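@here heads up, posting the sequence + SMILES for the zinc ion run so it's all in one place. Ping me if the SMILES looks off, I pulled it from an old spreadsheet.
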Amino acid sequence: MTRHHPDSLSLMEYSAGNLSEPHALCIRLHLDKCTHCRSRVDTLDSLGAVMMEQQPKVSVSETMFDDILAKIDSTPAPEQPAKVVPKISLLQKLLGEDINNLPWKRQLGDVSVLDITEKFPGQKEQVVLQKLGAGGKAPAHTHRGTETTIVLQGAFADQKGVFNQWDFVVLTDQDEHKPVAVGCEDCITLSVLSAPVKLTGTFTRMLNPFIR
Ligand SMILES: [Zn+2]
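bot reply: prediction finished. Complex structure tokens:
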């Protein structure tokens, strides 16, 4: 059961088909495992269809969708039949391999990375898989832009809480964090970066040009 969900605006943009391919993949991976967000997107899809028919020029805001979603959330949803789990996950199909068997590149300390941006030709964002070894720590860093991350395996913790498998987190240049892998598995995340990360520790800052 995931506890950290994409925000209303992201779900709305996903439903409207406005997200970049890597961002949409992050949302799709989350929706695959989160019935709460899936039912929100189903509703937004139906709402979008009605709006397209009736008011093609209507202007929307995040507040408006938050209000609508709050109403939906306060109404108990009918029990939905479980969707058929695809035999090959979206990710495995994209990568052609199990995430644990990828050619990971050791970056710094307990962190390994694999840049998969080339899997999304024509996209502006950088798409990176990051692995934090079980029990490992990542160096303190901020983000120069917005980083959208979904946890694919294991879990990590930072000052904002614990992020488990399929949890969704968006970090900006205001967030400085020092994630630690929790549990006995390597923590693997998929991140879409609008700009590279910026290391903030006194020593690691010197390594910045070599990291990203
Ligand atoms: Zn969710």
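MO: Residues 48 and 83 are 22 Å apart (CA to CA).
MO: One more: Residues 207-212 have pLDDT under 50 and may be disordered.
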